[in-house]
Amino acid sequence: MIDHIKKEVRVRMAPSPTGFMHIGTLRTVLYDYFFARQNGGKLVLRVEDTDQSREVGGAVENLLRVLDWSGIVHDEGPFLVSDRIEERGDYGPYTQSKRLSIYQKYVGQLIDAGHAYYCFCTVERLDTMRQKQQKMKQPPMYDRTCLQLELAEILERIDAGEKYVVRMKVPRGKEIIVEDVVRGRVSFSTNTVDDQVILKSDGFPTYHLAVVVDDHLMKISHILRGEEWLPSTPKHIILYEMFGWENPVFAHLPLLLSSDGKKKLSKRDGDVSVEDFMAEGYLPEAIVNFVAFLGWNPGGGQTQEIYSMPALQEIFSLEKVHKSGAVFDRVKLGKINAHYIKNYDTEALFELAMPFMKKFCDRVNMQMDFERIQDRDFLMRVLTVEQERLMKLADFGVENPFFFEDIVLEKELLVWKDATDIQTTQMLTKAEEVLGKIDEDHWTRVYLQEILMETAGEDRGSFLWPLRAALTGEKRSPSPMDCAWVLGKDTSLARIGNAKLLIIPS
RNA sequence: GGUCCCAUCGUCUAGCGGCUAGGACAUCAGGUUCUCAUCCUGAAAACCGGAGUUCGAUUCUCCGUGGGAUCACCA
What does the buried/exposed string (b/e) look like for A10-44 if buried means 16 or more CB atoms within 10 Å of the residue's CB? Predict the structure, then answer.
């Protein structure tokens, strides 16, 4: 009982393979990961696929790709090795559907010890029972009908092929104490704990049995999970007691909330899966940074909020995790993502942005060959200009369609304040002359900035506004220098020429 | 309804008995600027209520109120 040797830290992430990863799951896994690394421990991935009806093909591969994207590295469990799933570690299998005989063995043990019993009640009976209880304002709980069954009858009915489940027999009148790292002591009376089904009629265990057995067998030392699990924790502790096992340390993390109703964040609140955010072009650095700060904060008067993954790993502490839920503020996430995009190395960002650029080019019917150097250069210029204005990579191009398509000019737009047609034409001619003299080698962002600002002189607006309007056809856009740089000399001069014709048709 | 959890600006939070209650996002007002975005400066904005403990409570205790989670052969 007295354990002077500090137990090895082993934490696990235990997702059910539903085909996507909830953003809250990512937060939990991040904390798991930080905690394991800080303590020289191990992070185990275990697939909780005990509900066959929810099986989704390719879910585990997907999960592993999301983890890889996030930068989280686990130590045991399934891995993706050249596109095939391979399990590593000494405590496998790490997939619950492959551990059925293990659970059955432990269920048998509980039955033999009188801690669990067979139940033949039909789903229909249980439903009407619960409805009755609800009507009488009683908490819905199993009425223990099948606890009265004689052994002979049980054997007979099993022999007859009748379907059954196994329930744990919760002792009455006991107090269960949950020692929680973030919540302190929480106590429950066993009188309010239901005789939970631990083995389903299809032979699969329920979550409650599987999680306890596996966590014990896999020597898990700390369980980090969402607060929604707190009410079922007494069931787990009772199971640990029935088996005579020491229970791990619990840490129930605060919930992620939706911004409107402040309810648990769920699918109906919009994008909630990591895959959704990946598809929208959020950077892993931004997602990790943002999500780590929901329900946790380094404290100590620290006002910095931008942290890299290694830095977070350094300063994270389980003791500083909050108790109350945190609203998932998408606006702030966008701001953080924009910050990361802005500060990203442009060459590296180009690689990340490629799929989004392709998608955009397809949408505007622009043939782009990423192997072709001119096309690459063009897209690189667009990205360079957009980099400091993008909130997410999926926004690539959408604010500046004039880079990709022919523009439709309106004459009024070209006129700066109360300038006359003559003046406007003069300004465009001036731009035409200056740009016309620049040879391709000098068509750089820096040089264009320099020469056009010089040409603009004191009264910048009267020169820059018509030029920008001529190049973009838009009221708002990046600077005319940047637009000219992106469009190139030929297109720029052509658009200026068109603008002049619009003002004074020849 | 039972059980359990939670409570500082609109939101994320700092604070761990004595502070002009600090920061970030959002908002508003300026500045930089040809426009938009960026960037810079500033403003407004919070301790849920009531008792108690204490010389002194945002902070500790209790009650209330409010919000949430959970009560499946789903996890």
Answer: bbbbbbbbbbbbbbbbbbbbbbbbbbbbebebbbb
Assess contact for A33 and A3: CB atoms under 8 A. no
Amino acid at A104: Q
Measured CA to CA, the distance from residue A194 to residue A172 in angstroms comes to 10
Q: Which residues contact A42 (CB under 8 A, 6 or more apart)?
A: A8, A9, A10, A11, A36, A75, A76
Cβ–Cβ < 8 Å for A291, A26: yes
Which H helix or E strand runs over A252?
A: strand A249-253
Ordered by start, the domain boundaries in chain A are: 10-96+256-327, 99-253, 344-403, 411-503
* pLDDT at position A4 over 60: no
Q: Which of A372, A309, A382, A388 is nearest to A350 (CA)?
A: A382
Task: Give this complex's ipTM.
Answer: 0.96
CB A465 within 8 A of CB A416: yes
- Whether the pLDDT of residue A461 is over 50: the answer is yes
Q: What is the pTM of this model?
A: 0.95
The catalytic residues of A are 267
**Cα A345 to Cα A361: distance, rounded to the nearest angstrom:** 22
A389 touches strand B (CB under 7 A): yes
What is the SS3 assignment for A16-50?
Answer: CCCCCCEHHHHHHHHHHHHHHHHCCCEEEECECCC
Q: What is the distance in angstroms measured between the alpha-carbon CA of A323 and the sugar C1' of B49?
A: 22
Q: Give the fold, CATH level 3, of A99-253.
A: Glutamyl-tRNA Synthetase; domain 3 (3.90.800)
Q: Which nucleotide is nearest to A15 (CA to C1')?
A: B75
Q: Is the CB of A386 under 7 A from strand B?
A: no
Over residues A143-180, the pLDDT tens digits come to: 999 999 999 999 999 999 999 999 999 999 999 999 99
pLDDT digits (tens, 9 = 90+) for A173-200: 999 999 999 999 999 999 999 999 999 9
Give the tokens for residue A400. Answer: 């500046």
The residue type of A128 is T
Tokens linked to A364:
């505007």
Q: State whether CATH 3.60.150.10 applies to domain A10-96+256-327.
A: no
- May I ask the CATH architecture of the domain A411-503? Orthogonal Bundle (1.10)
Task: Please report the DSSP string for A451-491 in residue order.
Answer: HHHHHH-S-HHHHHHHHHHHHH-SSS-S-HHHHHHHH-HHH
Q: What is the DSSP string of A387-416?
A: TTT-SSGGGTTTT-GGGTS-----HHHH--
